[in-house]
Request: fold
Amino acid sequence: MKAVECTDLHAAYDRRCLHTDAEILHGISLSLEEGKRLAILGSNGSGKSTLLKALTAMIPTSGSVSLLGKDVAGMKRREIASCAAYMTQISQIFFSYTVFETVLMGRYLHSSKGLGRYTEEDMEKTEECLKRTGVAALRDRQLFRLSGGELQRVFLARTFAQETPILILDEPTNHLDLKVVAGMADYLKEWCAEPHHTLIGVYHDIPLALHLADELLLIKDGRVAAQGTKEEILNSGMLEKAYDFDVRGYLKSMAI
Amino acid sequence: MKKQKADNQIKIILAFVFTVIVMILATGVGSVSISPSGIVAILLHKLFGRALPETVSASMVSILWDIRLPRACCAFIVGAMLSLSGALMQSLLQNPLASSYTLGVSSGASLGAGIIIVCGISIPALNYFLLPATGFIFGLGTVFLVLFFSARLDGNLRSHTIILFGMILSLFVNAILTMMSAAFSHHMQRLILWQMGSFAGRRWAHAGILLGICVIGTILVCIYHKELDLMSFGEEEASAVGVDTAKARRILLVLGAILTGAAVCFTGVIGFIDLAAPHAVRRIFGASHRYVLPMSALIGGAFMALADLISRTILAPQEIPVGAVTALLGAPFFLWVYFGGRKR
Reply:
């Protein structure tokens, strides 16, 4: 089954801008089989993060998007979030929850509605996700007291806690040091190794993208520049075209 | 988690004890002082028809039952409503500086009251409910205008759009009120007194209406405690986890406006508690809305009752505006909670 499929997807942050010059995505088509790992690459402002928002119906779109064979247009927010967990770029934190409380919130869809509390099962799953991303020791710490890397792992744990077959990550390793990036890559690979788990990520770190993904999607100016396996894209020279830059030459020159 | 839960249970018990002490003081202290046992005897007499002891005179019963108790109850309920809606607004707008008044309820309600006072309108059927009813309608009207304009500009009703329109409309409505003040200066003392806020002369009828709105509002807001936890991280983060943010936000903004509007229209504009009580509660009980919402209501209510007690007794027989007391009393408490928490 296709995990994600979209056809002629246009997206803008204001509905009135759709199909005008002000729209961000100009007719993107993409198809990804269940169990695959896709990295979305492109230069700044090419529309990578917007594509993730469009796939999860966060912004106005036209064209069709389907998750696990179901049309997103007819899905409620709960249904979308039970198909795909989307980890946004972390913005400012205003109120200081503990690490445990934050990860527990990922169980929102699994818990009862209204005044009901989170169940014992939710608590156990939360503990499991805390261990999985290596933040179990921080469980009672306030978010304000965490470093950027710790925070990122807490939010990854929350995304895992949603227990969805699709994981969508927007620059999960931004501002992180090398050791934390390596750790994150391990957690993600471990998650992807489970059956039917599909990973879609936007990365600025090209070596990390190549390490994590088996398929690449190149975006340039809101359009698909190329999609294919890692090898196909690397050999086609499209990476250079998408970035207007000798990417492979640069990576080779950086090899230490 | 279990330790935190046990800690919070002790703190909740302490908060209830504090509230009971405040209510005993708020009803017992005054020109005629009534002992706690006297208060209990009067309550038993009024509620269950028990005989009064000899130490309790008929005037004491009247002072407690007809004057002090409805006044203290009104103060408690208004404090609870204001701080509950303050907590709600801060989380919903992801802005620790947001308050119940961010959406322009107070300026709208003041304009409504100003029109009634200046025009000298009186409707005998509504009696002393005319001013509150008009204030409520104008207050809610202003909020709906803010939401209408915000939605026109930004379909997702993002926080900064709402805050911006709330400020613009508040300033606009205040300007109309200022012009009215200039044109009808002889009426303005009454309006200024109304705006300052007071619980003087509040009766059981007021307390009853306020209690109904407060209880229903609190339950409805508490139903959304998980959504509020998620929404306090931001719109996108909450949607990503499965919250229908557009729907939840509309419902909660209207609930917040009704809670504030009802409080303001019966007592005038009383600041500070709605801003400070939720922050103090977050410091004491943590950020989870399972605690923040009910405890903001309890602590906010107790503080308002205490502020009202001070406002009517400290310069007795003269009363000082309760809004001034909330800030004078609240600011040091707020600093203590903040800096005390930091040391820990």
Remarks:
- The domain at 25-343 of chain B is CATH 1.10.3470.10 (ABC transporter involved in vitamin B12 uptake, BtuC).
